[in-house]
Amino acid sequence: MPTVVRSQAHTLLARLAEPRRFIHVLAGPRQVGKTTIAQWALGRCGRPTRLVSADDVGAGGPGWLAQQWEIARVLARESRRRPRGAVLAVDEIHKVPGWTDTVKRLWDEDTAARTPLRVVLLGSAPLLIESGLNESLAGRFEVIRVPHWSFAEMHKAFGFGLDRFLAFGSYPGAAPLVRDPRRWSAYVRESLIETTLTRDVLQLSRIDKPALLRRLFEFACTHSAQQVSYQKMLGQLQDAGNTVTLAHYLRLLAAAGMLMGIEKYSGSALRQRASSPKLQVLNNALATAMLGDDPRTLLKDPQVRGRLVESAIGAHLANEATVGNCTLHYWRERDLEVDFVVSQGRRLLAVEVKSGRRREGVPGTGAFCRAYPSARPILVGTGGIDIEDFLRSPVSRWLK
User: How far is the C-alpha of 116 from the C-alpha of 243, rounded, in Å?
Assistant: First the structure.
């Protein structure tokens, strides 16, 4: 299997070479390679390193973290290499009770003592990582966001073509199982979906209606790349909740790196927040695993294939937005719609996906561009940019 070095690995290596300024945080969903990224960068940084995990035996709390930190301090002080210092990397940091206060105290002690110890924190629970960082470690950290794998990475590592990518998504750990779809589906459901919902959402946030959150997740996965009003969702989910609760749960699922509700593009931020969301998984594996059938069989239905194409393109853009390369919306006025609106500074892109499925709305790129003259329209699919070419390319290529 060809080695895939993700761009975040190069980013981390470059930051470790800089003067000690910030704690470096690798944050992202489960099973996207954060530990591998850290191992690659630490192996090339030229300093003594210590990589530990809170999953290790005896990792019981702040005392364990302080012990690991002290060992790394000794490495830093005794280092005679050039450049001097050492690196401590702590995986699954969110599993250490009270970790933020402990990290703050130890980091500040090193800053005062000028101890040349650099620190990398990794975690599979973005919800807890981000809340802890913002509450206790403000001004002391930089986040390197690690998104789901792209089509280009899955092709290079596992030889995925377009159909396999549409059907099985982009979890590298699940890729060797695609020849056995039932086994693949069980792995995605039990090891990825259930673990994320249970450990990263339900245990780490206040959820008054856990059954509603689970039904919302299932509904969003099976309606990926579709605009659905909150009222319609409530009717479908058959729960006496409210739209505020659904919007909150969608934000939690987005923070866990699973799916998101894309907001409508508007000149008013208030109108964007009040709009009906366009549901979007961040990895096609979530959509096909929840649909239940053999993913390869799903592609034989033109309507389902069309939705999976739109879902894959939406996930590609959504992951770019997650790491800060752009912002993502959709647009609709009456029966006119633009599938995805991508913005980067003053640059604006109206993306229409022609996937072959029957649509409720009418392509509205012309109307959108008349309303927003700076927008550049592009068509992906039949008669436009090749779908594979679009999925292989960073969004910056089309925003030039």
Answer: 50
